[in-house]
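1st attempt posting a full record on here, be nice pls
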Amino acid sequence: MIGSLEGRLVHKSPPHLLLEVAGVGYEVEAPMSTFYTLPATGERTRLLTHLVVREDAHVLYGFATPEERALFRALLKVSGVGPRIALALLSGMSANDFERCVREQNAAALTRVPGIGRKIADRLVVEMKDRLGTLVVDSATLPGGAAGTGAGAANGVAAADPASEAWNALVSLGYKPVEATRLLKGVDAGSTEERIRRALQGAAT
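the predicted structure (as tokens):
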């Protein structure tokens, strides 16, 4: 099991990133809550990881904090919830917001996350209520590294269009293309991460 990775952030295109560790590039998928903390491309960072083994692939998921990874692992134990839904849930709301939904039995709020219908939302409220108190994690967070300026250009990486990247990220998280377009309507300024954050905030209301 690969528990963590520390190296140079080579590329990031939410929800995917490439981390180079001792000359080896690791492809990692991460929730937007982790992306918001990442440093600039070219800088070093460290992530906690969880490896999901499928018949057709081994997929690494990365997290900025022990709490995020613990919640991700707990979500995978709920029937009907796979890595994609768990990633979308961690991207669409904070761990504290999710805990609040469960404790208040607010299944309706969970259905705003793509891939979560009423049946799965009700199951999450019931099954996660008892598990929230058993998520024992280290309280320390992992430093994401200070964001630098111009790192991408210094490494010869052309700047991508933030609007296109934000749209692609929302679709990768499970939103339908039409819905992704609607959420980004009016979000016409800022970095890719900022656009996604504002779009997800709109989806939660």
